[in-house]
Amino acid sequence: MARLVFTALEIAVDGAPQSSETTLGTVGGHAVVITTALPDVGITVISAYIAAIVGDIAVSHVRSVPGGPPVIHQHVLGGLQPGETHAQACLLDHAAEIRDVLDAFHASTATVTAAIADGALVTADRVWHASD
User: Could you give the angle at which helices 86-105 and 120-130 cross, rounded to 10 degrees?
Assistant: First the structure.
């Protein structure tokens, strides 16, 4: 298993940067787990991805927000995904999930952005390849 803790996501609410820490772990080339914690707002999102490298990706997201129980959201990412590799596709989807969770948490009254930091996609690939 390969694992890395980094600040891969640049998250902001109404332009105010949010502190966060992201852990990306891989088991072989087929499983990627990404966890992001936002300690200042008490939100954690865990995303698990399983795929055969090429093709559909099964996704489970666990969303933990203050004031409610954790929620599991599952779906399939079908067909071609953005990014050049499985790890990049997973990190991009995870960033979108963070944005969606924060948007729902703020009841759509705030502008939420979740951008991938420069070099984060390359770093995700290094971790992914290290598990081979």
Answer: 120
Q: What is the model's pTM?
A: 0.85
Tell me: the pLDDT tens digits for 87-96?
788 888 999 9
Q: How far, in Å, are 10, 13, 40, 52, 107 from residue 16 at the CA level? A: 10, 5, 12, 38, 17
The single residue listed with the structure tokens 């990627």 is 32
Q: What is the pLDDT of residues 11-58, one digit of tens each?
A: 999 999 999 999 888 877 688 899 999 999 999 999 999 987 667 889
- Determine phi and psi for 76, rounding to 5 degrees: -120, 130
